[in-house]
Amino acid sequence: MKKLSWAIFIAALLITLALIAAEQYYVAVALGVGTIIMMQRELWSLITRRKLPVMDERVKENTTRAVRNGFIYFAAATALLMLPFTIVITRGRDTIHVLAGLFLSAGLVYLLSYLYYDRAQPRMGERLLKLLKRFLQLAALSVGAFIICVFLHNMLGALLGAEEPVFFILAVIVSPLALAVGLIGSLVVFIIGLARKIT
Predict the structure, then answer these.
(1) Is 16 among the domain residues?
(2) 157 vs 161: CA distance, rounded Å
(3) 96 pLDDT band (50/70/90 cuts)?
(4) At what angle do helices 25-38 and 2-21 cross, to 10 degrees?
(5) pLDDT for 161-184, tens place per residue?
(6) Does residue 40 lie within any of the structural domains?
(7) Count of Cβ atoms closer than 10 Å to residue 32 Cβ
């Protein structure tokens, strides 16, 4: 564990220095903050106890699942950014800002996943776990519905030669509202799980 932590730290430091040398400051800051978020447990232990935390089977399993979630998010977000409509949306912005946001959000997904597996999930009852699952499913379905509605709106608009209103409203109003409800609901259930005492 000690060797792995040092390897991650040194690799992140070298990549950050290379990005600073290339004057890509936003990505360098995002990579640094993302690394700190991912190694928060180890860093906090080094600051408070001056030693690395114990790595038992539960911590290994939670870390593995959190890394898996962060990787899946990073891959899915990268794939989403490669879709034609997102290329048009992000064309006017600096690619560096988009990449920096991707690094930061991937680190945040890792941190929330670790906190969920380590602290929230053991404290949640079956009812709260089902509710969290429903909210997450709603958020995922709204993203899928948004992508499908954008494609259908563009396809029907091209076929009919006129603006198509139904899929436009679904993509611009209904899907974002459903995503907001899913994410806010998930966050509320997550915080309730964190605040509960283990019974």
Answers:
(1) no
(2) 6
(3) low
(4) 170
(5) 888 888 888 888 999 999 999 989
(6) no
(7) 18
